[in-house]
Design brief:
seven-stranded mixed β-sheet; alpha/beta; 7 helices; globular; Spore Coat Polysaccharide Biosynthesis Protein SpsA, Chain A
Amino acid sequence: MKAAVILPAAGLGTRMGRSVPERAGTSRKQFMLLDGAPILLHTIRKFLSCDSVSEIVLALRKDDLAWVEGLLKEERPARPVRMVEGGDTRQQSVENALAAIGAGVELVAVHDAVRPFIEPSTIERVIREAAESGAAIVGIVPVDTVKQVRRNKIHGTLTRDRLVLAQTPQVFRHDLLRRAFAKAREDGFTGTDESSLVERLEQVEVSVVAGSDRNIKITKPSDMDLARLFLAEEKAGKKAP
C-alpha cells in the first residue's frame, strides 16, 4: 500500500534567528542550504526514493510558492510533488494539505520538512506498519533520565522503558486522519503532533516503529554542524545506525 506524504514547510524558523540566510524577506530554516541545496529539497529526495510513496504535498507560505515551484522544475521529480498554501500553524498547514489529497488515497504520512536524514528503509517500515494497524509513528527511546517537574522542583522520575521521543514520519489511514483533524477543529484543540490528534479519537492504538537519533529536526543554528556531518557520511556511503 502506498502513502501520500505531507511536508509542512510554512514555518518562520524563529529559533534560527538572524543566522538563517533570508528567502522571500524572512528567515526560513527549511530553505537553508546544505551542500548547495535547500534542506527541504534534501527531505523531498528521501521520499522520492521510496516505492511506497505515491505523491508529496508541500504546505508553504504564499510568498514561497513561486520560488519552490522553480526549485521543483529544476529537480524534475519522478512522481507528483504538489504545493498548497499553508496556515499560520503547523496544524493548519497539515489540514490544508490534507484537503488537497484525493479520496482514493488510503494512507497519509506527515513528516517534518526539516528532518532530511530520515532513512528510506524507516519510511518503508512505518508505512507498512500503518497499513496493518491504521496508525504508526517513528520514535526513539530516550537515553537520558527524564524528570517530571513543577516550576524548578522535581516531582518524580519517569520510567524510560515506557517513554518514546516522537519523530516523523507519522502515518495514518486517510479517513482516520481526516476525522482526527475535524474533531480537533470542532473542539478547538491544538496538538503537538498528528498522533496526538488521532489518539484523542480513541479508535486505534498508534504503533511505534524504531527510528534513529540521526533523524534530527533542524531547528537551531548548532544543528547545522551536525547536519553537515551526517550529509558527509551519507555521501561517503556510511550506514546510519
